[in-house]
Amino acid sequence: MNFFEQQAAARRTSARLVILMLLAVGGIVLAVDGVVWVATQSPRMVLFATLSSIAVIAIGSLYRIASLGGGGEPVAQQLGGTLVPENTTEPSLRRLRNVVEEISIASGVPVPKIYVLEHEAGINAFAAGYSTSDAVVAVTRGALDRLNRDELQGVVAHEFSHILNGDMRLNIRLVGVLFGILMIGLIGRKILEHGRFGGRGKNVGAILVAALVAMIIGYIGLFFGRMIKAGVSRTREKLADASAVQFTRQTRGLSGALKKIGGLHDGSRLNQRSDAEEVSHMLFGDGIGFSGLFATHPPLLERIRALEPKFGGEELARLQAQWIASPPDGMQEDVALGLAGGSGSRLPGATQELSVTPPMVAAQVAAPAADDYRRADSIVIAIPDALRDLASERASVMPLLLGLLLADDEALAQHQHMEIAARLDGEMADHALRIHQQLIADLHPMLRLPLAALAFPVLRLRPRPQLDAFMDTVHAVVHADGQVSLFEYCLGRLLTVQVRESLDPSRYARFGRRKPGSVRNEFATLLAVVAQAGHEDRASAQHAYLAGLQRVLPRDHLPYAPPGNGVLALDAVWEPLDALDPLAKQAMVEAVTAAVSHDGRVSVAEAELLRTICGALHCPLPPMLERG
């Protein structure tokens, strides 16, 4: 399945989950009603019990989801995670950060915050959050110590597949709903304890009935909750394994990590079992040891054999014996196997033209290949150290990102400088202008989006009032005199979307449902602006526009009408287009690609424009659209 099909599958999974949860709630309510009826024979009490049960489950679910409204960070912190600094020099943490950054750049998404569970010796990891803008990737200390670079990359790629496939928002909502189901059991336990220690009296019968209800409903809730969670999780884990192999184009890393889980004493277990049970469906490996109907992951041997069909239990036993005597050291294996880092590949010239087709580009959305990982390594190396330093410091990250948005035209840049000074301060405006003139003006076009991706996790650390002011400033900069280029405008939009979603992750986590016919005018506006920007004469632009229109709305005859206000007309199109259902978005990506490539030539700058537009619409593309 490609990205759009996986998104559609995730939406169907969410719908099935809602149905299963409603059935589970119905079963719990019926059980409560049955016990209350036997005890009281009162229809009024049964009605009260029904409403009370539904209220407890609903309030518990909403409370837990609200407590996770901050996205991935609360989950990582709940499990004792420690944030990895952007400028860390500790070797194992630096290796982890390099791997995460390379996969982020190869995937075309912002670099997530990275956490380490320092007190966990087992090999495990998870991704949490509502979207790519608030995502967190966490790994255990055991994974850092025991896995070599290839294996660590396989595990991180597995977690990125959860990010890209839309599993994270499903996982967080699953935590919330299950908490609501189990709330009755938690309340019942307290009532049961009160019944045991409350002494004797005329209410002892009612207390015993309440205790019995607590026992029955607690077990029912636990049974339904764990079974539903396990069923959903096993399906998504199989898909994540397959996606990780698709990303890295090799099975050795992922299978090696799974073998070490099976061969080492600590396996993938987590010590904080009470917290781990709640998030067990998010983990890379089985963190709590449930099996059968309640197993959140496929059997370990089954996962390994899906990657290496000839691998057997006797080979796993041999590895267990070997590692008892001499546990593996991931960093030492890197040296022995020559895995210190990727070999990289040369970036194309800034004026080079690419050969791409609409289906080729759509197939690459959120689907980086081995070439993209090698190119990501080259991109990281090619970014000047001075810019990387600016991207890793809180004090300089905002001037850096604003510098990316400044125009090359001196008069327009001065106008943008005034906008920054008016909304933030003169010193930051001066800093942004210096960065643009000295470091960004001659930067290779392929390095702008990756630089923004590296800077984003540092930007997220700024207080909300500063981020609100930053978004206001970005809006002013890209609207200055209406003369800003389409790329700079779209980059500003992409930054705004990412900051907005990081501030209110649960608010913007939605699967789109709209169809192309409901956004025909917005779609026509986007195509017209893109066609006008990429073609010097009106006739060529019109042909490009029609080529794109036929991809999505073949029966419509919307005339080519480039808006008088240019790129600023796009302000009204983003939210309706982002609300398209996944398969409609696939057609939209193909249509925009058709408009960009209609003249048979796609420059590196045009490819970066296409990546920026798709990124703003949550369809991340890898850094180079042409593959060998």
TrEMBL record:
GO MF, one annotated term: metal ion binding
Short name of any one Pfam family annotated for the protein: Peptidase_M48
Cofactor(s) named in the record: Zn(2+)
Transmembrane segments: 17-39, 45-63, 170-192, 204-224
InterPro entries: HtpX_protease, Peptidase_M48
Native source organism of the sequence: Thermomonas carbonis
Gene Ontology biological process terms in this record: proteolysis
Keywords associated with the record: Cell membrane, Hydrolase, Membrane, Metal-binding, Metalloprotease, Protease, Transmembrane, Transmembrane helix, Zinc
Name of protein: M48 family metallopeptidase
Domain annotation Peptidase M48: ranges: 94-308
